[in-house]
Amino acid sequence: MDILVQLIINGILLGSMYAIISVGLTLIFGIVRVVNFAHGELLMVGMYATYLLGAHLGLHPYVAAVPVVVLLFVIGALIQRFVIQPLLGAEEHIQIFATVGLSIALINLALLVFGADLYSLQVPSVHHSLRFSGYSLLVGQAVMLVCAVALVGGLHLFMQTTPLGRAVRATAQNRNAALLMGVPVERIYVFAFGLGAACVGLASALIMPLIPVTPSIGSYFVLTAFVVVVLGGMRSLYGAFLGAMIIGLVDSLSGYYIAPDLKEVVYFAIFIAILIFKPTGLFGLGRGTE
Amino acid sequence: MDASVIATASPSPRKPGLATRLLHPRFYCAALGMALLLVVPLAINSPFLTHVAVTICVFAALSSAWNIMGGYAGQLSLGHAVFYGIGGYGTALLIQHFGLSPWIGMWPAAALAALVGAAIGYPCFRLRGPFFSLATIAFLEVTRLLFIHFDWITGGSAGLIVPLNPGWAWMIFYDKTNYLYIAFGLLVFAVLVAWWIRGSRLGYALTAVREREDAALAAGIDNTGVKLRAVMVSAGLTAVVGAFHAMYLTFLEPATMFSLPTSIEIAMYALIGGLGTVAGPVFGALLVVPLAEAARVWLGASANGLHGFVYGTALVVITLTMPAGLVGTFGRRVTGWLDRLPGGGNLAPALAPPPVARPQGTPGETMLEGRDLVRRFGGLIATNNVSITLKRGEILGVIGPNGAGKTTLFNQLSGFLAPSSGTVTVRGPDGKLVEPRAPDAFARLGVGRTFQIVQPFGKLTVLENIMIGAFMRHADVAEARAVALRTAKLVGLDDVAEVEARNLPIGGLKRLEVARTLATEPSILLLDEVMAGQSQADTQRMVQLIRTIRDSGVSIIAIEHNMHAIMSISDRIVVVDSGRVIAEGEPRAVVQDRAVIEAYLGEDFVDAQGH
């Protein structure tokens, strides 16, 4: 029983990490309608940036989060403006190839610059263990959970109450109608892609002290993020949050009860099953994949 | 109809012989070009160059195989390494456990890959673009993890070494030139398969399904069936090449045999060369593989990642600047030059189209019947208990205000929508009444339909568009072309036969809808507003055409807003309003019906008229 509770705690903490990454992916897909295969590489870039700021300027990753989020916002906006925007009218497979190409280019650029070695940032305060009635979690994980909840709540408030948020929602619902109402759709897209990338920036600063960075770290996370997003119904922030929690729990429980090397098989199997049998997502919150 | 149109007999109704084809410059230039891939390394005889040539052949062959599914059928797989790995592992395990030569073992491995391909494809084909790609990636990851997990069969992540018995029987050589012979042979085989499919009925069907699923169904194409055939051929071919490559590498591990980067690479060559073209994948591999291999050798480990960076950047640049790829962008110009070489010219044989069989049966018997049709969309009842009967040889006009439910009714009569309740019966060519289920089954029974919102295959020429319809009754390409040409003349599109369909004006597109449907040689024709958007002269022409079609024995239902035209051609009129039939009868009786005038012009008008 104790083990089960600890596994559930671990699962929720893992889920909050996936949530922050997946929320960014959901924003980009839900608004710009582009599946960003380079999303994981944005995470990788953010992690290297956090590492450099920490190792050379001595910035605590939670402080470095601010410049990293800004950096990723700018990178995301540039990608949208110069790669995605010219391809918005192109066929879907061309968009897929463009973001896949971006992902390959970024992975290998990191390989050229940093090599294949692991880089990790030692931040003792983040690794401090919190204990209560026999269960334990790291400070870094608790911060992740708080940030995930705050991020989804903040985005909710932003989308529902601000004029810009309304414009973003209008664009996501119907591009042409928004255009006719005077919404500068292309600028909204640039903003939305930047916002999605900025979420990943936050994730990378939070993850860096817990997991070492390699050039290919993104591919590991991005596949999981896609599973989460599909599970959550593609366009829904809350769906993505819930999906992330579920995948976190599946990861934690199946790693213990089935086999550590098969936990990914379990959630990929869930992924395929959802895609095929319930394309609107587990909670029917999205518009689906068909 | 002009009688001479039907009897356009060509003076030499003969297919070009094999010699004519072989002596065509498109063929001999391609053959000579490919032969260089074999001759140059043999002449220079450097192990490195041989290795590069083998790698080019392998990836060009893999990419050609991928292109059948990813290019022709438009199903963008990013998990094709599944089949490559199955081919390699299958063959290696058959050597290890059963002492089976790879020459034999590669075939059961390929059959397994084809089955796995069908099993993955069948549920995933309904997924749209990027989600199909994601699903294929997921299958790749699962396969790789399972191959690592079940290490008692596969050797796990430690890998598997192919038993090293040198000689042709075991496909293991000390001299790399022998590998080149086999790799080159595989490339030729893959390109021939891809080329044959491209020009076959299957190739056209795949293009049709990729461009417009609904129009393909209306042309009687079994969408899932043709995609399954494409994935099985593609997967099997990929596995055969994978089997050879495993023998060449002599070492297999899950990380390299089931790798996502390899899958992307395979697809990338096809994109760079030109998706859906026969020559594209070969050019793509020819261009990029030597660069990457050279970078690997000359720059060594210091440039680790450089070739990948170049790959990725090239991919982004290509999508931004040349999305049609090399062949898609320059192909027409080059084939134009080639055709001017000795032996060049048009290969398409001029065949006399076979005569159209006149639908046989008792005049006046029921051809198509919808009984008590109800169709709900959520709370809306679009079709409310409608019964409609089409008799043999008549033209039945369906009119009604916008939103009356006419097109919804059509969609049920042609199988594109299943009624919520009620039945649709069709008299098949054998004279029996049947209840088909799928739209392509309706089409094959002789129910042809057009779409109100035109559905051309934009990238195909007008003639090829019509051929897609003709393929339903004529499997032979030359015969289908002849039938399409005859149909194009009939509807007056023969002068634009070689124009890409997306360049036609709306009037031409409407006639193309009719032509594609006519080419399926239907016995029942459903026309959905074919006169909308036509000029006065074109409308007259369309009226004439519809009469001609009826006179050839086809029974017709036409939805139309052009009152003058529909009243003049129809034998009977059915008036639909708010999902119900409000009047039915001869044109003259119907226009005076109080309910009809009310539906169109409102109660006040009726009262003002004093009816």
TrEMBL record, chain A:
<feature type="transmembrane region" description="Helical">
    <location>
        <begin position="217"/>
        <end position="234"/>
    </location>
</feature>
<keyword id="KW-0472">Membrane</keyword>
<comment type="similarity">
    <text>Belongs to the binding-protein-dependent transport system permease family. LivHM subfamily.</text>
</comment>
<keyword id="KW-1003">Cell membrane</keyword>
<feature type="transmembrane region" description="Helical">
    <location>
        <begin position="188"/>
        <end position="211"/>
    </location>
</feature>
<feature type="transmembrane region" description="Helical">
    <location>
        <begin position="12"/>
        <end position="35"/>
    </location>
</feature>
<protein>
    <submittedName>
        <fullName>Branched-chain amino acid ABC transporter permease</fullName>
    </submittedName>
</protein>
<feature type="transmembrane region" description="Helical">
    <location>
        <begin position="135"/>
        <end position="159"/>
    </location>
</feature>
<dbReference type="GO" id="GO:0006865">
    <property type="term" value="P:amino acid transport"/>
</dbReference>
<dbReference type="InterPro" id="IPR052157">
    <property type="entry name" value="BCAA_transport_permease"/>
</dbReference>
<feature type="transmembrane region" description="Helical">
    <location>
        <begin position="65"/>
        <end position="84"/>
    </location>
</feature>
<dbReference type="GO" id="GO:0022857">
    <property type="term" value="F:transmembrane transporter activity"/>
</dbReference>
<feature type="transmembrane region" description="Helical">
    <location>
        <begin position="265"/>
        <end position="285"/>
    </location>
</feature>
<keyword id="KW-0812">Transmembrane</keyword>
<dbReference type="InterPro" id="IPR001851">
    <property type="entry name" value="ABC_transp_permease"/>
</dbReference>
<dbReference type="GO" id="GO:0005886">
    <property type="term" value="C:plasma membrane"/>
</dbReference>
<dbReference type="Pfam" id="PF02653">
    <property type="entry name" value="BPD_transp_2"/>
</dbReference>
<feature type="transmembrane region" description="Helical">
    <location>
        <begin position="241"/>
        <end position="259"/>
    </location>
</feature>
<keyword id="KW-0029">Amino-acid transport</keyword>
<keyword id="KW-0813">Transport</keyword>
<feature type="transmembrane region" description="Helical">
    <location>
        <begin position="96"/>
        <end position="115"/>
    </location>
</feature>
<keyword id="KW-1133">Transmembrane helix</keyword>
From TrEMBL, chain B:
<dbReference type="GO" id="GO:0015808">
    <property type="term" value="P:L-alanine transport"/>
</dbReference>
<feature type="domain" description="ABC transporter">
    <location>
        <begin position="368"/>
        <end position="603"/>
    </location>
</feature>
<keyword id="KW-0813">Transport</keyword>
<dbReference type="GO" id="GO:0016887">
    <property type="term" value="F:ATP hydrolysis activity"/>
</dbReference>
<keyword id="KW-0812">Transmembrane</keyword>
<dbReference type="Pfam" id="PF12399">
    <property type="entry name" value="BCA_ABC_TP_C"/>
</dbReference>
<dbReference type="InterPro" id="IPR027417">
    <property type="entry name" value="P-loop_NTPase"/>
</dbReference>
<dbReference type="GO" id="GO:0005886">
    <property type="term" value="C:plasma membrane"/>
</dbReference>
<protein>
    <submittedName>
        <fullName>Branched-chain amino acid ABC transporter ATP-binding protein/permease</fullName>
    </submittedName>
</protein>
<feature type="transmembrane region" description="Helical">
    <location>
        <begin position="179"/>
        <end position="197"/>
    </location>
</feature>
<feature type="transmembrane region" description="Helical">
    <location>
        <begin position="27"/>
        <end position="44"/>
    </location>
</feature>
<keyword id="KW-1133">Transmembrane helix</keyword>
<dbReference type="GO" id="GO:0005304">
    <property type="term" value="F:L-valine transmembrane transporter activity"/>
</dbReference>
<dbReference type="InterPro" id="IPR051120">
    <property type="entry name" value="ABC_AA/LPS_Transport"/>
</dbReference>
<dbReference type="Pfam" id="PF02653">
    <property type="entry name" value="BPD_transp_2"/>
</dbReference>
<dbReference type="GO" id="GO:1903805">
    <property type="term" value="P:L-valine import across plasma membrane"/>
</dbReference>
<feature type="transmembrane region" description="Helical">
    <location>
        <begin position="230"/>
        <end position="252"/>
    </location>
</feature>
<keyword id="KW-0067">ATP-binding</keyword>
<dbReference type="Pfam" id="PF00005">
    <property type="entry name" value="ABC_tran"/>
</dbReference>
<dbReference type="InterPro" id="IPR003593">
    <property type="entry name" value="AAA+_ATPase"/>
</dbReference>
<keyword id="KW-0547">Nucleotide-binding</keyword>
<dbReference type="GO" id="GO:0042941">
    <property type="term" value="P:D-alanine transmembrane transport"/>
</dbReference>
